[in-house]
């Protein structure tokens, strides 16, 4: 009998570990849905009624977000030393990994409009940190502290402001520009009135 290497591939994932609104997302361009099942991200196509792709992380997945053009998927891990992983859904580029949070990533959001090169992330409540990234370069641009738990993160259409919402707060964060127009970091959050 000849030796042959068996090839195994994942056929289907049963179950879901989504725990809040930041861990179940829909691609506005394709209509596909992404959700976590432990350390695997499942990409499901309602049009085809099937799971079409899987992405593997090393830790459990806490949050997900599609880019505005539908091409990229950002995923935040939970646990000590978590990563944010950005996958190119067209497969043209290797995943980008971002690291700055200490105890888990609670929410991620791609910038909009002219700021689509930015990604904002919020750590778990013990992390108490918002990070602003130029994600394609893997570069941390700035951080800001938060005092309350954050449940949601979203960008305003023009890309100059993002919003966090959580325990007893809704805050608007402005992007400060460095000379030459490059984003330098997150400005102070302003509470909603």
Automatic annotation (TrEMBL):
Pfam families associated with the record? WD40
Q: Which SUPFAM superfamilies match?
A: WD40 repeat-like
Protein name per the record = HELP domain-containing protein
């Amino acid at each position: 009998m000849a030796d042959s290497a068996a090839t195994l591939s994942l056929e289907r994932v049963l179950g879901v570990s989504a725990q809040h609104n930041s861990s179940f997302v829909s691609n506005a361009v394709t209509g596909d849905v992404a959700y976590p099942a432990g350390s695997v991200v499942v990409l499901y196509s309602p049009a085809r009624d099937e799971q079409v792709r899987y992405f593997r992380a090393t830790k459990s997945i806490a949050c997900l977000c599609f880019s505005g053009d539908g091409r990229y998927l950002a995923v935040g891990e939970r646990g000590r030393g978590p990563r944010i992983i950005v996958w190119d859904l067209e497969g043209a580029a290797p995943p980008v990994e971002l690291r700055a949070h200490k105890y888990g990533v609670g929410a991620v959001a791609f910038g909009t409009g002219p700021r689509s090169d930015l990604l904002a992330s919020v750590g778990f409540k013990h992390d108490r940190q918002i990070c602003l990234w130029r994600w394609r370069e893997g570069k941390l641009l700035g951080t800001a502290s938060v005092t309350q738990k954050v449940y949601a993160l979203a960008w305003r259409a023009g890309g100059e402001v993002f919003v966090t919402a959580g325990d007893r707060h809704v805050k608007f964060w402005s992007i400060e520009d460095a000379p030459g127009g490059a984003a330098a970091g997150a400005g102070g959050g302003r509470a909603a009135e």
